[in-house]
């Protein structure tokens, strides 16, 4: 007589759920310069930021929002105006640099001061390069301003959000000095199956880096946080999602 073995759906669901939780967050993009709020957190220049300091590229939410967090509760610190965000001193013409760790087909990029859209750049439905730069005219503004930069994806209903604090024609204000929280140590496969991370050497475009690899760049040492192949625009100080300074 044949016997049928039934696996409870609840148990199976629990396994799937645990696997999903273990998967790393997908990388996307953010404004690296002038440093956005998430970039300041990732660089340790603003502290006690929570999860955003490890994944500044992940502020994704529905299109049409006007919040720095993209509606993500885990990134709510980005909406906190009492956090003491340093403002970068700029002129009336400002170039915003995006870094992409996953290049989605793009509808456009938009820039807002309050509810006023001050600039828009067409993406043509194409994938951008590893970086993108947009020069925005802020001639109608002066003093401290919060710029909301939005990357609208063409083939989904979502966008990526970055808030950049600037001081048009003025100083940048103080930078918090509390030391950043040490990130959790990266997990690597057993030494018996994977060669140990390499150390030393100068960062070079075209090189495949593994988690834990260390390089030098402009006299500073950085440790790799995510496996990737380096390309121009992904220099260690520009992509804290990929590198952390040692």
What do these coordinates show?
This protein is mainly beta. It folds into two domains: 141 residues, Coagulation Factor XIII, Chain A, domain 1 (Distorted Sandwich), CATH 2.70.50; 47 residues, Carbohydrate-binding module superfamily 5/12 (Seminal Fluid Protein  PDC-109 (Domain B), Ribbon). 8% of the residues lie in helices and 34% in strands.
In short:
The protein is mostly beta strands. The chain is built from 2 helices and 14 strands; from the N terminus they run αβαβββββββββββββ.
Secondary structure topology:
Layout lengths: L8 H14 L6 E5 L3 H6 L17 E3 L25 E3 L2 E8 L5 E8 L2 E11 L4 E7 L5 E11 L4 E11 L39 E2 L4 E4 L2 E5 L3 E2 L13 E3 L1
Parallel strand pairs: 3-9
Antiparallel strand pairs: 1-4, 2-9, 4-7, 5-6, 5-8, 8-9, 10-13, 11-12, 12-14
What is the element string, with H for helices and E for strands?
HEHEEEEEEEEEEEEE
Q: Mind summarizing the main beta sheet?
A: 6 strands, mixed
How much of the sequence is in beta strands? Answer: 25-35%
How many domain regions?
Answer: 2
The averaged pLDDT comes out at 81
The CATH class of the largest domain:
Mainly Beta
Task: Using the alpha-carbon principal axes, give the shape.
Answer: globular
Beta strands, count: 14
């Amino acid at each position: 007589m044949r016997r049928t073995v039934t696996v409870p759906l609840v148990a199976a669901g629990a396994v799937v759920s645990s696997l999903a939780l273990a998967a790393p967050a997908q990388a996307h993009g953010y404004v690296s310069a002038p440093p956005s709020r998430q970039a300041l957190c990732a660089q340790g220049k603003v502290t006690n930021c929570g999860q955003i300091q490890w994944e500044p590229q992940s502020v994704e939410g529905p299109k049409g929002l006007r919040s720095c967090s993209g509606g993500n509760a885990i990134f709510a610190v980005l909406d906190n105006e009492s956090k003491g965000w340093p403002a970068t001193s700029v002129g009336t013409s400002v170039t915003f640099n995006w870094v992409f760790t996953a290049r989605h087909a793009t509808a456009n990029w938009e820039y807002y001061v309050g509810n006023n859209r001050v600039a828009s750049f067409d993406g043509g439905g194409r994938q951008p390069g590893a970086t993108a730069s947009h020069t925005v005219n802020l001639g109608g503004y002066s003093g401290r301003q919060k710029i909301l930069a939005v990357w609208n994806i063409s083939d989904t209903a979502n966008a990526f959000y970055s808030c950049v604090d600037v001081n048009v024609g003025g100083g940048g204000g103080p930078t918090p000095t509390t030391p950043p929280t040490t990130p959790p140590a990266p997990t690597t496969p057993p030494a018996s199956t994977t060669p140990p991370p390499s150390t030393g050497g100068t960062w070079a475009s075209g090189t495949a880096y593994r988690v834990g690899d260390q390089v030098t760049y402009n006299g500073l040492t950085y440790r790799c946080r995510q496996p990737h192949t380096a390309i121009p625009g992904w220099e260690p100080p520009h992509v804290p999602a990929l590198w952390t300074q040692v």
